[in-house]
Amino acid sequence: QVQLVESGGGLVQPGGSLRLSCAASGSIFSINVMGWYRQAPGKQRDLVATITSGGITNYIEPLKGRFTISRDNAKNTVYLQMNSLKPEDTAVYYCNAQGRMWTMHQFDHWGQGTQVTVSS
Fold first, then answer.
1. Stretch 3-32: mean pLDDT, rounded?
2. Burial (CB count within 10 angstroms: exposed 0-12, middle 13-18, buried 19+), residue 116
3. Residues 100, 114: contact at Cβ < 8 Å?
4. Which DSSP symbol is given to 16?
5. Nearest of 48, 50, 3, 52 to residue 32 by alpha carbon
6. For 49-97, what is each residue's pLDDT tens digit?
7. CB 27 within 8 A of CB 101
8. How many angstroms separate the CA atoms of 119 and 3, rounded?
């Protein structure tokens, strides 16, 4: 089994910062890609950023310069540093991981999500 536990969400004022963490655990042999997605009420779940085990990052254009994704492969953990937050960033943020278990089965797993609310 694979578990993803997100943390770091909360309430922040516009212009503030938050740092999200997602720790993967379980019978994991390797993780190829980890990423963050977000979903606002009534909206579809959208990509925020991804990072490969080799450190290759991908961001949606509107978030470049404000959000930074990073990882610690030894800890199977991905981070999302969010700066200059705007009310439009309010959403549930979900962690995703893709890789292989010790059985060599591929997995594509989602965390439960962490709420980020940007409001004055």
1. 97
2. buried
3. no
4. -
5. 52
6. 999 999 999 999 888 899 999 999 889 999 999 999 999 999 999 999 9
7. yes
8. 30
